[in-house]
Write a structure and sequence with these properties.
The protein contains five helices and ten strands. By secondary structure, the chain is of the alpha/beta class. It has two domains: 118 residues, Fe-S hydro-lyase, tartrate dehydratase beta-type, catalytic domain (fumarase), CATH 3.20.130.10; 42 residues, no CATH class. It has a four-stranded parallel β-sheet with strand order 3-4-5-6, with helices on one face. Helix 2 runs parallel beside helix 3. The longest helix is centred in the middle third of the chain and has 12 residues. 19% of the residues are buried.
Length: 167
């Protein structure tokens, strides 16, 4: 595991390889479909300096922030993926999300000495904590059939109880 702290410099990016596992620390900007096109527009028209952000060496996490927590959204959505090249040009060094991105975006990342990293979905974490699985009923439904899982320490957050909700 490589430890990376923001802001990220060019030397750190140059040393990263596909498949490296990293621990990321420091300030990470979060944005997705609605806000990233706004940042791109501000970069292109030269008004991004009006924001209290420093994109040099920064990280953009493709996520929304809610009381339920954060989790990566698909980075290949048009509004998100089309922000990667211009925001890399603006100084973003690492784009964090999930899913495959197009070859043109990979080329743009290289051009601006930036990288893309994925955060495994929660299913990867839960898969590691699933000890056994047994098909119980309705096999014709495939992955939507009724299963019984034997699990060890699944993490969860109570979202509603006693007439209250976190949403």
């Amino acid at each position: 595991m490589k430890e990376i702290t923001t802001p990220i410099n060019d030397k750190t990016i140059a040393e990263l390889k596909v498949g490296d596992m990293i621990y990321l620390s420091g300030c990470i900007y979060c944005g997705r479909d609605a806000v990233l096109p706004k940042l791109v527009k501000m970069h292109l028209d030269g008004t991004i300096g009006k924001l209290d952000v420093n994109l040099q060496g920064s990280v953009i996490f493709h996520t929304a922030v809610s009381t339920a927590g954060v989790g990566p959204t698909s980075s290949n959505k048009l509004e998100i993926e089309s922000s990667i090249a211009p925001l890399s040009e603006a100084g973003v060094k690492l784009h964090l999300g999930k899913g495959a991105i197009h070859a043109e975006t990979v080329t743009a990342l290289d051009k601006f000495n930036a990288v893309y990293a994925v955060i495994p979905p929660v299913t990867a974490l839960l898969g590691a904590k699933t000890l056994e699985q047994q098909l119980v009923a309705f096999p014709e439904l495939g992955m939507e059939a009724l299963y019984c899982l034997k699990v060890d320490r699944y993490p969860a957050i109570i979202a509603a109880a006693h007439g209250r909700s976190i949403y």
